[in-house]
Amino acid sequence: MLKIDESIRNSLIVASMSEWIWEYDLLTKELDKAEALINFLGYDKNEVEKGVNFWLTLIHTDDIKALLNALNDIVSNKTNYFAVTYRIKSKHAGYKYIRSTGKAFKNEYGNNIYMAGYSIDISEQVKIQRELSETTERNKKIIELSPLGVYAYEKGVITYVNESGLKLFGAKCEDDIIGKCILDFVDPCCRKTSSKRIKLLENGYKVNSKEINMLKLNGDKIICDAYSTSVSHENETEILSYIKDITEQKRMTEENKKLLEYTIECDRVKTEFFSNISHDLRTPLNIILSSIQLLNYIYNNSDNNYNDFTTAFEKYINIMKQNSYRLLKLINNIIDISKLDSGFLHMNFSNHNIVEIVENITLSVADYIENNGINLIFDTDTEEKIIACDADKIERIILNLLSNAVKYTKSDGTIKVDVKNEENAVLIIISDTGCGIPSNKLESIFERFRQVDEELTSKSEGSGIGLSLVKALVEAHGGIIKVCSTYGVGSTFTISLPNKTSENIEMPSTSSNASATEENFNRKVHKISIEFSDIYS
Ligand code: ADP
């Protein structure tokens, strides 16, 4: 080996070291042999002084105290070891983090007088450390603030839970959850699958996210989406589960599904209604047109036989009239239903004797009903009952129900109209011995555009909006309507109207004026013609 001078060798060793040696005289307070440090900081030898006060000007103000304390401990002989981290200003690259370590030497009196040591640049280390702790802090925050419930558990026992995890199980504090078994929070129906999944994770396998029924602390069931993964450290396997409560989401999806099905059904019913209504509008129109054509033909071919033409005219004009009424009824119903839907149907409430209204309108169609070979019975347990109602709408309701009763009752059958005065309500009961309504159709009978069975409606024409309008009109009075029916035996419609009068509304005066009475009579005939227009005798 090449022999070299020992002092040269020492200098070489020092120069090749990544640490910078320094010496500090505690008596003169001067730093010596700090060339490497001065070089590293980018200063020129001439710019640097040996005295401690100069060096203190380079130290970051926040670190001066710690450095002086460490020095004082040496000066006051508290310790022989010097170790301190501080920031020192470099010439061109801002502050550098330095770690200085030294050892003090004592004089013969046991006082520290001299110190030697080395410094290393730990700026990069500090930077990495800071980034790491920032990342750790950030991750911690992400987990803490995560909207998902985060749970860590070892051997099935929960060791960590975040804020959302507490809320998810309805817990107030960590103690409610930590230390408990995760499977305790799983609904018994899902425990077997969950424990299998935990075993798989513990053995290092991966599992897919899964919908699991879970239990809150109060026993409430919740539906959750769970994603789990395992983390192994020091022979222990920790499982992390991210759990989301999807109960509300599921309920909404289910509701939306039902809503969609309902919308599709409504759309189907509407389409069906339009096709029915087109048919219902076309049939009377065709009849009217054919009647006109026939009349025209008879007129052109009657060879001036006035009698022939008059007989035909009477017959076809009646047919045209009835079919015009049919069109009117349908259109009136559609208009009123739309008005009711948009809240624009005006209700004209006055105090009326409801018994009189029901009796009069029933009797006004008595001839018509009896001409169809059907018995009509009107009965009441009270002669007068004043309630607040819209007389016109009540007549419409009764006519509608009576026209249905006639439509679906064969000759020799019976239709009965009963008025009953109860404590809180007036009941109007319209029953018939007609074909009845199948029990499975009873629920939908008041729904718009529903008709029970085409076979049953053979005697009549209808669009299936009459009863929905009746129901809406009854409800506009604050009343309710119910149906009871036995298929093949008959049907009973019961209207219950609230037994109350309105103090602010006066009884309409019954005019004795002859022209007003006649006008009233004509109005009623017109109304009956419309409501009964879809019945053919
Ligand atoms: P439509 O115009 O078809 O008569 P409604 O809404 O008045 O419409 O009645 C709906 C359905 O209810 C009818 O198609 C019929 O099948 C059934 N219905 C109504 N009233 C009676 C009744 N008194 N007897 C038997 N079925 C009835």
From TrEMBL:
Which residue range or ranges hold the Histidine kinase domain? 276-501
> GO molecular function, one example?
phosphorelay sensor kinase activity
Enzyme class, first EC level, given as a word? transferase
Catalytic activity reported: ATP + protein L-histidine = ADP + protein N-phospho-L-histidine
Q: Name one Pfam family in it.
A: HATPase_c
Instruction: List residues of the PAC domain.
Output: 82-134
Q: Which residues form a coiled coil?
A: none
| Highest taxon of source | Bacteria
Keywords, comma-separated and alphabetical = ATP-binding, Kinase, Nucleotide-binding, Phosphoprotein, Transferase, Two-component regulatory system
- E.C. numbers: 2.7.13.3
Protein's name according to its UniProt entry: histidine kinase
Lineage, opening ranks: Bacteria, Bacillati, Bacillota, Clostridia, Eubacteriales
